[in-house]
Amino acid sequence: MATPAIQATGNLLHEAEDNLFIKDLPSNGDWKSSATTKGRLTWQLIFAVVVVSFGTWFPIGYSYASTNTPQAIIIEWIRSVKCARLAGPVAFSQVFFNDSQKGPVPAYDDAMQDIWCKAVAENEEHLVLSENAELNRIWAIVGATVGGGALLSLWSTNWWLKRFGSKNTMLINNFIGVVGTVLASLCVEAASFEMLIVGRFIWGVNIGISISVPPMYIAEISPASLRGATGTFPGVCFVGGAFTAVVLGLPQLLGTEQLWPVIFWLRAAPAVVFLLTLPFCRESPRYLLLRKNQAAAARRALTFFRGTQDVDGELRAIQLEGDSMLAGGCSKHVSLLGLFRHPFLRRLVIICTVVILCNQFSGVAPISIYTTAIFTKIGLSKLESLYGTVGFFFLQILAVLTSMLLMERAGRRLLLLGGFSVAALCLFGMTLFTALGKLSYLWANYVSMVCALVFIVAFNLGPAFLPFVLVPEMFPQSARSSAMTLVSAGCQLPNVAMTFLFPIADALIAEYTFLILGIILLAGTVYMYFNVIETKGKPLSVIQAELRQRFG
Predict the structure, then answer these.
(1) Residue 83 to residue 118: CA distance in whole angstroms
(2) Which of 7, 122, 3 is nearest to 384 (CA)?
(3) This prediction's pTM
(4) Biggest distance spanned by C-alpha atoms of the chain
(5) Are 392 and 452 in contact (CB under 8 A)?
(6) pLDDT tens, 178-204?
(7) Which pairs with CB-CB distance under 8 Å and at least 24 residues apart come from 88-94?
């Protein structure tokens, strides 16, 4: 998955009606001089942002990429478990692990044992999944269960927030992730790939809550002028976690027959750091003041994050926002169904749905998870594929860091349309050059790999994060919380489908899978060109006015 700057305060506030934001709309461009409140970056704010991002979003990226580089070893382990259950000898380690001390490879009469127990030469590893439909399904489930758990748990986010607040919700959720880590890590000792699946599903439950709560908490504790940078930092941690998992999975480190479960154990490291450091951070001042009505606690929290006692103005602004919402009689927010009843909101839902579907059906999730297998299939050696995967994720980090600088400079529309357009061209290129590589044009294999690397750079420069920035900006406050829930679900459902279906589709139609994804991106980009407006630097009231003038 990719990683976003999302959700300011909608889930924690009584929402306001649309006209509440539009009635005080500045005219003649006056908003440019008064749109934001300047704030300084304090060590307390940096500490909180780093702790929360590293403790929650680093494990998300780590979870999705943890099976990437050791994929072949884990698949062989699954085969060994299944083979042992069939009461057949495990012979393939003689070839795959170069183990010559186990005697000759036995012959099998039973077809099932032959499928699960025969030795596989290194140059034939990429054929294992295509020749064993059940193994292919098991491996697809292993990859998709993380997204499946996230899809189920994200609907409970509001329940957790109402009862425990942001800080305590994150603490409790962290323990859920630790439970998943224990189960996934003990799967070898238990000789159960089902335990691996359950452990990764619990990781998904943890991730479903972590997708929304930490970015919202960061947005609430950050000054308006810094929300772009601080809100993008969870995405940096996401790709950092993925990169770490990929590097640890190299055969020179933990990507071996004996050590690969340690990769799963290490997912607990950020959780331990998080549990030790988060208690030193304060709860969101906005939550304390508007939800708990604890003015003194809100002052202490805001003083902590701003590093100064001069917080009266910001506290008054928060309180006035709450008072104006109550004065507008807006204690009830728009429900999920309400998004589809109102014509204006329904149009916004359609626009954002197209953006989100392009984000998810771009292929970035399966490409990230199955990078090593993709590189192997285009003709690279096993070692070349592993190093290509490392470079793949390193480029992600550079691209996301660059996106933090471009977010408020290039504008949302340019980054979104440009990123999707380049990504679509790369998918077409991967289709063409992979096909040429199969026709013995060896140079085409390397061009295909370059297309994959350019794809990930273009995607992370804009489309990876912008959908989660656009949704809070485009929807009125009264509908924002429901819109973000819908968007989170809209991310996880296609993510689960893509992760599960990609290896199956890849086995059936091979490189033409990328062609289908490229066509989806191209069609979505054309739609976005005519419907997505530029929101850079504009206050919400101005954005709402423009959207109503155009679509209302």
Answers:
(1) 9
(2) 122
(3) 0.75
(4) 84
(5) yes
(6) 999 999 999 999 999 999 999 999 999
(7) 88/113, 88/116, 88/117, 89/117, 90/117, 91/117, 91/118, 91/119, 92/117, 92/118, 92/119, 92/120, 93/119, 93/257, 94/119
